[in-house]
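Lab notebook, bench 4. The sequencing result for the construct came back, and we need a structural model before the next group meeting so we can plan mutations. Quick request posted to the team channel:

Model the 3D structure of this chain.
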Amino acid sequence: MARWQILQSWLLLISTLPVVWTGHKDVMAMDSSKRLKQCFCDMKSSDYTFPLEKFHDTVSAAKHCNGIMAKKQFQEADELQRSLEYRISQLKDQVDQFESEYDAGFYSIIFLRIIEIELAELNDMLRHLQNLDKSNKHLAVTLTSKVVNLTDEVQELESYDRLEVYKEYEKNKRLKRSLDECEVTLQATAAPTVPPVFGNCPHGQIFFIEGPKTYMLSQFGASYPYGAWGKDPVPAPGKETMHWVMVLVNSNLFGSYFRSYPSYGNLRTGKAYTDVSITSSVTTTNSIMGPCAVLYDDAFYYNCYNVPQVCKYTLSTKQFQTLTLPGAGIKDKFPFCTLSSTISYTDIDLATDENGLWVIYATESNYGNIVLSRLNTTSLDFLETWNTTIYKKSVSNTFMACGVLYATRHINSEYEEIFYMFDTKSGQESRDLNIRFRKLSNIIQQINYNPQDQLLYVFNDAYLVTYKTWFEK
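Done. Here's the predicted structure in token form:
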């Protein structure tokens, strides 16, 4: 049937004259001397005669075949088969339930009778399906004969293809796209990039997490389950679609570089990436320690090697800045935890939101409870600091959104739950949020919120996952 569709398209193209060249030129406006740009096409026609009447007869016959194949008896057989599959699945569940009750001594003759009735109805449906099948086979034989005749007619029509219809058809489609692109180029007005308004948060509290929206295994593979990934919420010009991935290549504890991709599509295919080297070794001054890292305003932030400090590595200048966190625990003194395990070297967490860059840690002076600080990214210094009453080892991860700290806890291998929040504006805390979301694997090593797209970027045992956040307005 594809052949007569192409022939039909060819006929329409002849009626409108096939496009052979596109471009743009200057023309004079009728009511003004101002010169305007327009897209145009030069047209050429052919003098070859085409058997139009026979063509229409073939099209009508093909449509008639399509109509027969869409008849009710074919649809009825499909629907009946789907119904049978569903009823058989239900019957299996009923038999399993009956066997369970029988073994437990709860045998019921009524329940057995229900199963017998169900079996009888299934037998009736099977007989009806068999009758439909016989009828449809006869109809299929008739249709096959008609299709063979149509094929002969289409092949005869092809003999008139002196202009190589197939090639011209494809060529004209390409030229039509070129013309459309020309029109769009002339008429389009580039939309300005609207960055997030930092310090201004119109959202309320998070009430739901949707997803996973996207997910994939890191290009580094499952052998590297500790790391972080994301997208810069304040990207440098030309890096608006860039994504990055960092894995801890030494004992799941230390790293020395991260990998950047021009777009999420490149990330999925593993192509066109750039490895950004931060240090020459994984165990030297300013090496990466732990999976908690973010990219913000074209600078990479992470926990410095072996010290309670935040490291900032500026991509454009390749310069380092550090900030000491007084009394902060490191090397699993105050890490994120589940009930049965420690999430190694997560003592110092970094986060981004509409208000900027944050660091989340714990100190002995605050009894191991979380301390939250907002940072000046230019001078890498403290702007504000809050002491919370949530013990850091009682949470499995944290992130910021609209000036609110959210903490998660491990429920099981399938679910994580946001259970705690601390509002930096009001100073209020809550421990009963009960916002669960499904994960791909047991342990989450990193969560970060991006205010540009309002997605959570999650590193989950080597899986790169995103979730949509929903806020109360």
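The radius of gyration is 33 Å.
Will bring this to the meeting.
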